[in-house]
């Protein structure tokens, strides 16, 4: 997630940054990295949604 944030300014869209990092790290699925980035944004308050901690509490 940090790498996507670091290179985001070098690309016209977040999607393009995600693709570049995906290739660089050898991650087979773009969707996997996209979900990790979204969850990190939710956890840090940059995007609305249910945090990982909240999901754990709901499961309990």
Which features does this protein show?
4 helices; elongated; single chain; 67% helix; mainly alpha
Describe the 3D structure.
- The protein is mainly alpha-helical.
- The protein contains four helices and no strands.
- The longest helix has 14 residues, at 30-43.
- The protein is elongated and about 40 Å long.
- The N and C termini lie far apart (27 Å).
| Global Rg | 13 Å
Percent strand:
under 5%
Continuous helix count = 4
Order of helices and strands: HHHH
Structural classification: mainly alpha
Main pleated sheet? none
Mean pLDDT rating: 91
Write the layout of secondary structure elements.
Elements: H1 2-7, H2 14-25, H3 30-43, H4 52-59
In short:
By secondary structure, the protein is an all-alpha fold.
């Amino acid at each position: 997630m940090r790498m996507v944030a670091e290179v985001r300014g070098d690309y016209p869209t977040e999607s393009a940054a995600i693709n570049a990092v995906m290739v660089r790290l050898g991650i087979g699925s773009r969707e996997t990295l996209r979900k990790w980035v979204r969850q990190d944004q939710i956890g840090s308050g940059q995007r609305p949604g249910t945090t990982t901690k909240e999901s754990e509490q709901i499961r309990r």
